[in-house]
Every structure is written in C-alpha cells, then in structure tokens.
Design goal:
Blueprint: H1 2-7, H2 14-47, H3 54-100, H4 103-106, H5 113-127, H6 131-153, H7 155-174, H8 176-202, H9 210-265, H10 271-312, H11 320-323, E1 325-335, E2 345-351, E3 357-362, H12 368-376, E4 383-390, E5 395-398, H13 409-414, H14 421-430, H15 434-438, H16 457-470, E6 475-479, H17 487-500, E7 505-509, E8 521-526, E9 529-534, H18 536-542, H19 545-555
Parallel strand pairs: 3-7, 3-8, 5-6, 6-7
Antiparallel strand pairs: 1-2, 1-4, 8-9
Helix pairs in contact: 2-3, 2-6, 2-10, 3-5, 3-6, 5-8, 5-10, 6-7, 6-10, 7-9, 7-10, 8-9, 8-10, 9-10, 14-16, 18-19
Length: 557
Amino acid sequence: MQLKMLIKPIEKEKVLVFIAALLGILTAGLNLSRPVLLGMIIGVFSNGVHKEKLDVYILLYFMSYLATWALSLLVRYMSTKLSQKILLQLRLRLFSHYLHIPFIKREKIPSGRIEAMTSSDLPMWSNLYGMTLIEAVHSVAQFLGALLTMQHFNLQLMLMILPFIVISAFIPILSSRLLIKINQDAQEKVARIIEILTDFLHGSKELVTDKSKTWARDKYSKGCKESLNSEVRKNVIQSALQNISAATEILAYITILIFGGRLVLNGTLNISEMVAFLAIIELLFFPARYANDLYGSMQASVASAKRVNEIFKIEKENSDVITSNVPTGVHAVSFKYREDEENILDHVSFDIKPGSLTFIIGESGSGKSTLLKLLAGYYQPRSGHIERLITDNHFSFVWQEPYLFNASLLENVKLGENIFPQEIEKNIKHVNITNLVGRSSEGYNSMVSNGGGNLSGGEKRRLAMVRSLVRDSELVIMDEPTSGLDHENASMVWELITKNMNSMTRIITTHDLTEVSNADQIVVLSKGKAVEIGSHQELILKKGFYYNMYTRSLNTR
C-alpha cells in the first residue's frame, strides 16, 4: 500500500523520472573516472612510462570536472522541474479531493490542516522525486562502480574495507524506524504551528482583549517550542548517525594506509594504484556516509506522504447529490453527528412541492440548520431518506454567514459561470446593493477581501443572494436570510423571496415570523422533531407550538 502511494505521483512523469535516473548514473560515472585518471597521471610521474599520454590524461581529468559541472546544472534543472511538476499535481489532487470529501467529514478536519499540507507536507513529498531520486540513483551507481573498480585494482584491499562499508551502510537501515518516527513527529509539530496560526488568524477579531491576546500568544508559543524541541532532537540524532558513519570511513582509511602501504613497499601494489584506491574510498564511502542524510530526507518525504494520504483515504462522495438533485420529500429522517450522542433530528417527514415556499422554524438548537444541510445534500441521513428529483439546473444555498472570496465583486457573483452583465445588474437592484457597486471607482471590479471582511454582514448576505438569482436556480435554501438586517433591507429581502423568486422552490429557516404567513407550508421543529406542519392559517387554528411562537413575535415587535 505504501509503495503504491509513492509510485502513483510519478505515473504521469515516467519519461522525466527515467531521465533523472540516467543523469544520476552519468554523474556517478564521471566521478569514478577521476580517481582512475589520477592514478594514471601518478603512474606516469612515478614510473616514467606512457609519457606521451600525460597531456591526454590531464586533459581528460580536467574535462571530467567540466562535464560534471555542466551535468550538475542539468541535474538541478531536471530535478527541480520533476519535483515541481509533481508538486503541482499533488496540490491539485489534494484540493480536488478535499472538495469531494463528505461535508460532515470535512468539518472534522482541523482548521489549517490542508494549508499545512499544501505549504509543508506536499513540497517535502515531491522532493522525493526530484533531487532525492537523482541522488539515490547516483549513490547506488557510484557505490557499485567504486566496488568494481576497487576489485580491479586489488581484491584483497577491497575485502578488508568491506566490513566498514557494511557497517556504514546499515546504520540508517537499522535506525529506519527511529528516523521515520522523529521525522514524522517533526512534520506533525510544524503542521500544528500552521494549524494554530490559521485558526487564530481566522478568529483574530475575537482576540481583541489583552487576555485573549495573551492566551493566543501562549498557545502559539507552546506549539513553536514543541516544534523547536522536535527539530533539535531530529538533527542531533541524524548528526550522531553521521558521526558513526564518518568514524567507520576513517577506520577504513587507516586500514588501507597500513596494509596498502605494506603492499606498495614490497612491490605487490604500485603507487599509482594506491593513490587511485585511496581516491575511490572517498567515492565509495560518500554514498554510505551520505545515506544518513539521504535516508533521512526519504523518510521525511514518506512521513509527509503518509500524513497527506490520511486525507486521500477519506472516501469521496458523489457531488451530483449536492449540485443537481432537488429534494421533493423528507421521509422519517433521523440524524446525529456521532454514534454516542442523541439524535439531532428524529423521524422528520414532510413533502416539498416544486415552486413552493417552505419555512422551517423553531427555537435555537431545534435542528433547523442541520435539516437544511441534509436537504442540500451536505449531510446524509443516519436513517430514513430524502426523495430527490434529478435536474440539470442549479440549486443555491445562502448561508447565514456566507463566505466571499478574495476576488472582485463580479467574480464573487459569477464564480466562473458565464452570466450576462445585464442579468447581474437587474438582480443587484433587487437586493439594494447598487450603492456597494457604486462606492468604488472600479465598480464591479472592486476587490473583496478574504471572507468579505471589507463588507458588512448584510452586504455579504445580499451579495450571496445575487449569486442565487443570476443562476436561475431551481431550488434556493436560505438560513436566516434577514438576520442582522435593518427593517428596510429585511422587507426588501422578504419581497424578493416571496415575489421575485416564486418560480423557484424555496426552503428557508428564520426567527423572523413577519412573513411566514406567505408560506405554502410551515414546518415547526422542537427538539429535533417536526411537531407541526401546515399553512399559517392551519397552524394558527391549532393553537399549538406555532401559535405560541407567532403570538410572542407579535408582542415583541
């Protein structure tokens, strides 16, 4: 499963991966050529043979360096291109997957988690396929090439240093679980900082008192300190492993100097082979010594991939449930967020006629907003079912606190749809926000800040209503559409709902009962149950829940 997770991102980039691996092998070949050429040059100086080839050997030695430098630029380009293309692929995949996660599961993802993955985990994961991949191939090729070259010079000496190589190479393998754990912990701590910061930035308005600022700063400081300790621990452990590898390399050099020197003195090994052999030790141990860093980078990438894969494991839902299915009936629907809690909605049933106006009312906590989300398809019932009519038309949901994007007013209305300007102009007048467009010289192109922070609550809600109107939606669901509006604007919104939108199916929750008499039906919720259903006149005559709520609202006007 882990291998499949790591292979999937490179399926579309096989050619680049092959080129990257080839570059790693070529780099290893060039590195190995220099000790051999150096041995040949020393051989000419010490033995006086092949003097005519000295200039050629020196030229080849110099050209090997030039080729390595040129190849290093190409390696950097290819590795960056490969990792960045995969990073783009992963970012788009994560964003797309997140949008298709069931709404109820999406709400459980901590604030800032996706941002942390996008800015930290995904770049770390994508690095696995760029420079890390090339260096891994390069290290393996250089290691094997160095062994073969050493064996060609002197098999006895090669066998002497083999135990040191095995120890150095196996250190990161034996410590793999520890490396995975410390890298995963470090990534978690960094991600946690981003999550805390994102949470506090979104709720910065609530942190206006000195006490709240202190609490937020302390919590953020604690997260930063935990990350600091985790990073220190990770780097100390990795440095310790590197020192052990370096110690084995020094012992190997000492061994070769002792035994190789004796072979040179007794004439079994000439000086040129000894020099070449010592130079190759560096190339042989570099992959083993570097394996700690390389293996650490790989484990950090794997740890990041595992974190992101937890999001990918969340099963996606069919988005058609939300975008194209209009509810026509609610049949014994029950719902709760967790198994260990009581039902928020309990066997709720009522019909919804196309083009009708349905008000859902009840005290706070009665389940109104939850029912709206079920009707919209954001949640699925725990039991019972919602009958739906499949349609190609839009449906719109106007939240009590609608979100506006960091884009122009026009983009916030169109959201990528091809909508005629005159249609937008007409509907903007309906909701009385012409002044919002006109108060900036840029008009429809004036920018809205993240979340609509530069607009009032009423302006945000009315702009969200324009989104519904310009799409000619078949269904419009609204959660407290007049909450926070003054009397004039509230009256305008109610007129819009009851007269200008009468071709649409409208389902609305509200505490404002001034207009409920215009409803085709009213659903009264109490403690998650539909205690009364009927028209205004029918429910008034019953003198039950609705009658009491309505008369109380009249008395408080």
